[in-house]
Amino acid sequence: xxxxxxxxxxxxxxxxxxxxxxxxxxxxxxxxxxxxxxxxxxxxxxxxxxxxxxxxxxxxxxxxxxxxxxxxxxxxxxxxxxxxxxxxxxxxxxxxxxxxxxxxxxxxxxxxxxxxxxxxxxxxxxxxxxxxxxxxxxxxxxxxxxxxxxxxxxxxxxxxxxxxxxxxxxxxxxxxxxxxxxxxxxxxxxxxxxxxxxxxxxxxxxxxxxxxxxxxxxxxxxxxxxxxxxxxxxxxxxxxxxxxxxxxxxxxxxxxxxxxxxxxxxxxxxxxxxxxxxxxxxxxxxxxxxxxxxxxxxxxxxxxxxxxxxxxxxxxxxxxxxxxxxxxxxxxxxxxxxxxxxxxxxxxxxxxxxxxxxxxxxxxxxxxxxxxxxxxxxxxxxxxxxxxxxxxxxxxxxxxxxxxxxxxxxxxxxxxxxxxxxxxxxxxxxxxxxxxxxxxxxxx
Length: 444
Fold this sequence. Notes:
12 helices, 15 strands, six-stranded mixed beta sheet
């Protein structure tokens, strides 16, 4: 299971810039004034072979008693509670402040593994200017520059080293050695996730109630169908970030993200009565980023009229067009309608995610694709693709070797993806294509 790192500090110390650096994205808005970030923000990070979840938080004022700062402080406390290690970010140029002392006192009382990091330390004589931060009583101060990337990698490695090593017999999230298929049901609150699992089980195993947020944690239920063993995971509904305030829900978001990471197949459950929302697209994007096989299920289809159905179909095309490879089923979990075909798609998606693709067949298909349509020429050279092999499963990864492949445009990558999908009947799983250019032996 991925460790969770929370970034904590007073306003305008560079937490969002550091978040973007760790996740390799621009998801967090960055500007040169304080208080821009208010809600918790989640992302995936990787250093070498080590992966983790990172949480960006707003400026933390532990003593705030009212207004927006009190709500921001509540968000930060929840991020700290669900994290495994805290990175306390201070401003090396602005120096130590009374607010830094308040945050340090709060973190020391919790006793959670904490790493003190001085940001904006580029070009500074670190020995003298960082000595004042030892007053915080949190040990050694690590100088970094999130804007320039200096010291960030060693900072993450140090933070992860504060955690105990994972057990040697820990489950492989991508493997299926135990023969059990992990099936997670994800979606917004009150779309019917618990009702769907109860319908599969044929009993009221999970609490299902017409109120958003009934499920607070990721619940795992063993299940067997047609001789195959499953672990059904009912996840807590992912609310819009600004709506997650209750202390009892503080673990819900990260537990849901970790459940998606561990799953082999994810059923993204949508609500026909509410339509396809931006939050549905956000959850779908996280599933795609995680590389999990996915099946779409539009619940409560029996409760909408023909006009609403047309609206929902239009919203699917606009907001979930990036999941065209995922089969869509129109179901009613309450009335147990459409559940048989849904199971067929789940089995097909799992089989596609774990499919083995022989190297000779991949290479032959690559050569046929290039003969049908060559990659466009860029500059003086045309990319030359020599052979392909499988680089992983769940999701399937195809590695293509050749020359000048860094020039291959995205549209040609999608063309190859379509050819591979059709040839191997890959349905319901993302497919990743990696290009590797051979090194020039005469290049110094």
